[in-house]
Design a protein that fits this description.
Keywords: Signal. InterPro entries: GH. By secondary structure, the chain is an alpha+beta fold. The protein has four domains: 120 residues, Sandwich (Jelly Rolls), CATH 2.60.120; 92 residues, Jelly Rolls, CATH 2.60.120; 303 residues, TIM Barrel; 84 residues, Immunoglobulin-like, CATH 2.60.40. The chain contains twelve helices and 37 strands. The strands form seven sheets. The protein has a ten-stranded mixed sheet. Strands 19-20-21-22-23-24-25-26 form an eight-stranded parallel beta barrel, surrounded by four helices. Strands 5-4-7-2-9 form a five-stranded antiparallel sheet, with no helix packed on it. Helix 9 packs parallel to helix 11.
C-alpha cells in the first residue's frame, strides 16, 4: 500500500483536497475492503500481478453500489496472471465497497482520483497487503473510545508506530513471531476527550497485518478523508416460485475417532447433525478389530446420524497410504465393522484424505485407488451394509491445493480421471473446501456444487448421477485461524451463508463443518473445550442449532437478486421455511412475494439470531401477496408458515 507524495504533502500542509486532481494508489491489496465515495465522476483502475499459485486459482472481486447491490463482479481466470480493468464510478453521497476477498493469490493495485474519498478496512489477523518501505496511513479515534492497535508479523512489516497529530503522542508496537497462528501483538492507545487523528507508520516492507479494535477499523491515505461510513438501508426483494429443485443436504460435523465424553452428549444433540465425517486409522483398526463399533453405533443410535463418510488414514491423520498388507487389513476390518452396524444408512468410504494435496502425483494415487477398490468389490457384504465409494476427497475442487504444482492438482481434474476409469464403481464425488474466508465470497460454494453436478452428469429427473459430498469445510484450512472469525458470531454468519449457497440448487447430499470440537493447535470446532471434560457451544454451533430448527427436506425455487443477503426457501409436508442471513452491517428491508393467496397462510413466524447469539421473535406483516419485515445487520433469520 503506497501513499503518493502529493497526497502526503496535501495532508500535512492542510491544503484542500481539490487543489489538484491526482491519482491515489493502493498497492498490492491481498485481503480487505476499500470504501469509496466519489465527489465527481471517477474511474477505478484495478490491476493485478501474481503473488503465489495464481496459475492454479481463479479470483473474484466484488464492487458493491452504495445501496449494497452488486455493481460489478470481476472474474479473473487462473491463466490471467496479469491484468487490468477500469470501472466507472458515478458521484455518490454514500460509500461504494470494493471487496478483495482473502485468501487471494494475486496482489491487487487500485487507483482513483484524490477527489474520491477512500478508506481501507483490513482483515484481522490474516495479512491484508504487501507494502513498500516507508508506508504511512491515517486513522481516527473518536472521543472516549478505548482503541487498540494490533498487528501480526508475517516476515514483512515488523513494527507499527502511531503518532497523534494533535500533540505528537507516540505509541510503538513491535511485531513478534508467534508459535500459534491466532496469536498477535497489540497495544492500547491513550483515550482522549475529543476526536483524534493518528498517523500510522509501517516499519519494514512486504506482508503487512494491522488493524484496530475498539474503534472503526478504517485507514486513509489522506487524513481529511476519514469519516464514518454511510451505509443506507438495503432493499431485498425475494420471489418464491413453485418448482421444487431437490432435497436439502444433510448438515453434519467431523466427529472424533473415539467415544466422545458423555458431557458432550447434550451439546452434540443441540447441534443436531444429520451427517458425519470420520477418520479410520488403518494401523489402529488392523491391530484392534471392532474398535470403532462402539462409537459408530453411538453416533447412529444416540445422535441419529444415518449418512457418514470415512477417510482412511494412518495414526495422526497420516494421509499417504500404500495398498500394502496393513492398509488392506485395515480396510477389511473397517468393512467388517460396517457390516455389523445395526440399522439403515449409507457409509461412504474415501481411500485417502485429500490425495491431490498429499500424494506425490496422480499416478501414485490412482494405482493405490485401483487396488483398494478391488478389495472392496471382493467383499460380498459391503454394499448390502450400505458401503459406498466416494472419491477423491480432494483439497478444494475448482482450484488447486496449497502446495507447489497446484495447477496439476485441481480436485476436479483428478475426479474426472477417476470417473473415466471407474465410473460404474464410484458412488459419490467428495471434496473439501477451504479458504473462502470472506462473507461476500461464499457464493463460490454454489459454483463448486454446480461444477461437481456438471462433472458427474444429471439423470432423467435432473438429479446428479453421483452423490455430491462437501465432506469437510471451514473458514480456514489447518491451523491458519483467526479468533475474530472462528470464535465469534462471524462464524455463524459464514456457516449459514455457506449452507444456503451450497444447497440453493438442490444438488448437494452432504455438507460437513470441520470439526466437532477444538483440538490443541486446531481451535476450529463447533464446541470449545473448557477443561478435560467441559465443553460449550461456540457461536457457530448456536447458528447451526438455529439452522437445524428451520431446515426442511426440499429446496424450493427462489429468486433473490440481493447480494448482501442470502436466502433459501424450503418445504416439507405442510410447512414452509425461508432461511436467510444478512452478511452486511446495514439493516435491510426484506419482502417476499409469492402466490396471490400467500397472505392467507398466516400466521407467519419470524425468528432472528443476531450478534448476541440469542434467538428472538420479530414482527412481520403480509399484504397484497407480499410478506415484509425488517432485518438488522449481521443477523440470521427464519420465516416459517404453513402451506395453504
Amino acid at each position: 500500500m503506497l501513499k503518493t507524495a502529493l497526497c502526503a504533502a496535501l495532508a500535512l500542509l492542510g491544503l484542500p483536497s481539490g487543489a489538484r486532481a491526482e491519482p491515489m494508489q493502493w498497492s498490492s491489496i491481498r485481503d480487505g475492503s476499500l470504501y469509496l465515495r466519489p465527489a465527481q465522476p471517477d474511474t477505478l483502475r484495478i490491476s493485478w500481478s501474481p503473488a503465489w499459485q495464481s496459475d492454479a486459482n481463479r479470483e473474484k472481486l466484488y464492487l458493491l453500489a452504495p445501496d449494497g447491490q452488486l455493481a460489478r463482479q470481476l472474474d479473473i481466470r487462473a491463466d490471467q496472471a496479469y491484468g487490468e480493468q477500469d470501472i466507472a464510478l458515478a458521484p455518490a453521497a454514500d460509500d461504494y465497497r470494493l471487496q478483495i476477498p482473502g485468501y487471494s493469490f494475486r496482489g491487487f493495485t487500485v487507483s482513483h482520483q484524490d477527489s474520491t474519498a477512500a478508506q481501507f478496512e483490513p482483515t484481522k489477523v490474516h495479512f491484508s497487503a504487501e507494502v513498500r518501505s516507508g508506508a504511512e496511513l491515517f486513522f481516527k479515534v473518536a472521543a472516549g473510545e478505548r482503541a487498540i492497535l494490533a498487528g501480526k508479523y508475517y516476515g514483512g512489516v515488523s513494527l507499527l508506530q502511531a503518532s497523534r497529530l494533535s500533540d505528537g503522542a507516540k505509541v510503538r508496537l513491535a511485531l513478534e513471531q508467534h508459535g500459534d497462528y491466532g496469536q498477535f501483538d497489540q497495544v492500547a492507545l491513550p483515550p482522549a476527550e475529543r476526536d483524534e487523528v493518528w498517523r500510522l507508520s509501517l516499519g519494514g516492507a512486504g506482508k503487512a497485518a494491522f488493524w484496530l479494535d475498539g474503534t472503526a477499523n478504517l485507514f486513509a491515505q489522506d487524513a481529511r478523508q476519514l469519516q464514518p461510513l454511510r451505509l443506507p438501508r438495503g432493499e431485498v426483494r425475494l420471489h418464491l416460485q413453485a418448482p421444487l429443485l431437490g432435497p436439502t443436504p444433510r448438515l453434519g460435523i467431523a466427529l472424533p475417532y473415539a467415544q466422545p465424553p458423555s458431557s458432550t452428549f447434550g451439546l452434540l444433540q443441540a447441534i443436531d447433525a444429520r451427517a458425519a465425517n470420520f477418520y479410520s486409522f488403518v494401523d489402529v483398526i488392523e491391530q484392534e478389530p471392532e474398535r470403532e463399533i462402539g462409537f459408530r453405533r453411538l453416533y447412529r443410535e444416540r445422535f441419529n446420524i444415518d449418512r457418514d463418510i470415512t477417510l482412511l488414514a494412518g495414526t495422526g491423520r497420516r494421509p499417504v497410504l500404500a495398498a500394502d498388507a496393513q492398509s488392506l487389513a485395515g480396510l477389511d476390518a473397517w468393512l467388517a465393522d460396517s457390516a455389523r452396524l445395526p440399522g439403515q444408512g449409507l457409509h461412504y468410504l474415501a481411500f485417502a484424505d485429500e490425495p491431490n494435496l498429499n500424494y506425490p502425483d496422480y499416478a501414485t494415487y490412482a494405482a493405490y485407488f485401483d487396488r483398494m477398490l478391488a478389495q472392496v468389490k471382493a467383499n460380498p457384504e459391503a454394499r448390502a451394509a450400505g458401503v459406498r465409494i466416494a472419491m477423491p476427497a480432494s483439497s478444494r475442487l475448482l482450484d488447486g491445493p496449497f502446495r507447489i504444482g497446484a495447477g496439476q492438482r485441481r480436485g476436479i481434474d483428478w475426479a474426472r480421471k477417476l470417473l473415466a476409469r471407474h465410473g460404474d464403481d464410484i458412488d459419490a464425488l467428495a471434496w473439501h473446501e477451504w479458504m473462502v474466508r470472506d462473507l461476500l465470497a461464499t457464493r463460490r460454494y454454489r459454483d463448486s456444487v454446480r461444477a461437481a453436478a456438471e462433472l458427474v452428469g444429471l439423470d432423467a429427473t435432473g438429479r446428479p448421477r453421483k452423490a455430491l459430498l462437501l465432506s469437510q469445510t471451514n473458514i480456514s484450512s489447518g491451523p491458519d485461524l483467526s479468533p475474530y472469525q472462528q470464535d465469534t458470531h462471524y462464524a455463524g454468519l459464514w456457516w449459514a451463508s455457506v449452507a444456503i449457497n451450497a444447497s440453493a440448487d438442490g444438488q448437494l447430499d452432504m455438507l460437513n463443518w470441520f470439526q466437532a470440537a477444538d483440538e490443541p493447535g486446531y481451535p476450529k470446532g463447533m464446541l470449545a473445550q473448557r477443561s478435560a471434560s467441559q465443553f460449550s457451544l461456540k457461536p457457530v454451533a448456536v447458528a447451526q442449532q438455529f439452522i437445524a430448527r428451520h431446515w426442511l427436506a426440499t429446496v424450493q425455487a427462489l429468486d433473490n437478486p440481493a447480494f448482501e443477503v442470502d436466502a433459501l426457501a424450503m418445504r416439507e409436508a405442510g410447512r414452509h421455511s425461508l432461511l436467510g442471513v444478512n452478511k452486511a452491517a446495514r439493516a435491510q428491508a426484506v419482502s417476499l412475494e409469492g402466490p396471490p393467496e400467500l397472505c392467507r397462510a398466516a400466521p407467519f413466524a419470524l425468528s432472528l439470531l443476531g450478534p448476541d447469539d440469542q434467538p428472538r421473535a420479530a414482527s412481520v406483516e403480509c399484504r397484497d401477496g407480499r410478506v415484509r419485515f425488517e432485518l438488522p445487520g449481521e443477523t440470521l433469520f427464519a420465516l416459517t408458515w404453513n402451506a395453504l
